[in-house]
């Protein structure tokens, strides 16, 4: 194929890779589903990028050479010197991508069912975004309900398998699938004048009148059977163009139909207090993630987050945190805790005064640090080692070492000096995070912090 044909397809493929595979699988790539799933996702991405470098090498020689030199370090033929006995132009061994042959097409890797599933997913997501734009609803703000309508149960079953992606991309509280087109839309048919004009000639005007009189059920029957007889003429295939028009309450709902006409996406645009709180919680997640990025932290870096709202624990941001703590903790890898629980020896990495939701909140991203039970609980060790010295010593230990000790079979950390030994019990005297401490304290005002996902 000439470059003018190949290059646009490669560019389109890169868009599919980055805007869909990478974005949809970002949590999986980072290990949210476990190390085994992360390895599978990363391996698939590596395979695609490696072959993409070879495919693009004739068109972007310098960029693909840069890609190849980076990727070849991790090729199985290079790792641990595995390819030392291979030819100089073998994959990974070759000093340049331009010495490699273009990859062969492997038809066995094409899964048409998956391609259809992905196409339908993309269609629903893109329609959902269009609907949001019409009502100027930001993607940060969750919507009450998204309804996906299709007369094809197989299509809806496939989308149901991808429900998690739809929730992430369209940010909704509830997702509903419906095959009842009659409830949500009106089917209308229009004549394909170009096709029918040549065949019917003067009879076309009479057929058009019959088409205009077709009811929803008539058009549905045409879609189901593929043919209809009007004014003595049998119509089939592309003779009729079927259109779906939304018939719901336009004050409540906004809808869009796919270009193919097989899918309709309807969004309930009403907003309530719970949705506002959920939007506030998502904004908090975004703010903390931006602070992580500002501090130069990577995915593997663990953090603790503390907050203090200007309006106190009854403010809108605090209320949102309390109401959607599992969602926030899942996204951040830690449960945000009140600033009052931050220990004095905790090391802040970055902080900011953030304004949103008509309120102001102080956010602190800190290095993980252990927390201790109140002084009266630790007082029993005073005669052996002064509590102040005991806590200072444990706090100075590497967090990872203390974590390993507390999560071991002994579930404790032991401190020794020349004359004495003290053992602190996990989740009784020493804690890995504020959530564990809140459970032990049992204070009603901290009960929200103990919520499990």
CA-based gyration radius: 30 Å
The total strand number stands at 16
What is the CA–CA distance across the termini?
A: 53 Å
Number of helices: 18
Strand order of the largest sheet: 2-1-8-7
- What structural class is derived from the secondary structure elements? alpha+beta
Oligomer: single chain
The count of domains is 4
Sheet having the most strands: 4 strands, mixed
Tell me the helix content: 40-55%
Strand content: 15-25%
Using the alpha-carbon principal axes, give the shape.
flat
Integer average pLDDT: 91
List segments where confidence is low: pLDDT < 50 over at least 5 consecutive residues. Answer: none
Domain Methionyl/Valyl/Leucyl/Isoleucyl-tRNA synthetase anticodon-binding: 6-146
Pfam families: Anticodon_1, DUF5915
GO biological process, one term: tRNA aminoacylation for protein translation
InterPro entries: Ile-tRNA-ligase_type2, M/V/L/I-tRNA-synth_anticd-bd, tRNAsynth_Ia_anticodon-bd
Keywords:
4-stranded mixed beta sheet, hypothetical protein PF0899 fold, Isoleucyl-tRNA Synthetase, Domain 1, 453 residues, alpha+beta, 18 helices, 19% strand
């Amino acid at each position: 194929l000439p470059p003018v044909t190949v290059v646009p397809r490669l560019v389109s493929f890169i868009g599919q890779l980055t805007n869909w595979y990478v974005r949809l699988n970002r949590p999986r790539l980072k290990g949210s589903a476990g190390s085994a799933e992360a390895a599978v996702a990363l391996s698939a991405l590596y395979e695609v990028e490696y072959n993409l470098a070879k495919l693009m090498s004739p068109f972007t020689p310098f960029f693909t050479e840069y890609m190849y030199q980076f990727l070849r370090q991790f090729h199985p033929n290079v790792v641990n010197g595995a390819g030392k006995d291979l030819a100089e132009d073998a994959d990974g061994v070759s000093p340049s991508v331009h010495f490699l042959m273009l990859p062969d097409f492997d038809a066995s890797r094409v899964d048409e069912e998956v391609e259809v599933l992905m196409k339908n997913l993309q269609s629903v997501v893109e329609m959902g975004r269009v609907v949001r734009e019409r009502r100027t609803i930001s993607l940060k703000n969750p919507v009450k309900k998204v309804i996906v309508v299709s007369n094809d149960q197989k299509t809806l079953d496939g989308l149901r398998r991808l429900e998690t992606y739809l929730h992430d991309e369209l940010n909704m509280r509830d997702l509903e699938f419906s095959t009842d087109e009659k409830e949500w839309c009106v089917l209308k048919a229009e004549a394909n004048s170009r096709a029918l004009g040549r065949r019917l000639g003067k009879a076309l005007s009479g057929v058009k009148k019959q088409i205009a009189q077709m009811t929803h059920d008539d058009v549905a029957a045409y879609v189901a059977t593929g043919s209809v007889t009007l004014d003595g003429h049998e119509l089939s295939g592309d003779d009729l163009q079927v259109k779906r028009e939304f018939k719901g309450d336009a004050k409540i709902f906004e809808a869009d139909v796919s270009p193919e006409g097989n899918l309709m996406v309807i969004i309930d645009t009403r907003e309530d207090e719970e949705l506002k709180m959920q939007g506030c919680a998502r904004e908090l997640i975004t703010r903390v993630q931006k602070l992580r990025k500002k501090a130069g932290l990577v995915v593997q870096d663990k953090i603790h987050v503390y907050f203090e709202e200007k309006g106190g624990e009854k403010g809108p941001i605090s209320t949102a945190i309390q109401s959607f703590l599992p969602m926030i903790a899942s996204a951040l890898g830690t449960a945000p805790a009140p600033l009052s629980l931050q220990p004095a020896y905790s090391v802040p990495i970055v902080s900011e005064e953030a304004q949103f939701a008509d309120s102001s909140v102080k956010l602190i991203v800190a290095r993980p640090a252990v927390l201790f039970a109140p002084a009266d609980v630790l007082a029993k060790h005073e005669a052996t080692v002064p509590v102040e010295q005991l806590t200072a010593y444990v706090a100075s230990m590497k967090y990872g070492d203390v974590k390993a000790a507390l999560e071991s079979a002994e579930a404790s950390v032991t401190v020794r000096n020349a004359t004495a030994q003290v053992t602190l019990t996990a989740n009784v005297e020493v804690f890995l995070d504020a959530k564990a401490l809140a459970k032990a304290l049992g204070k009603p005002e901290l009960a929200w912090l103990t919520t499990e996902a």
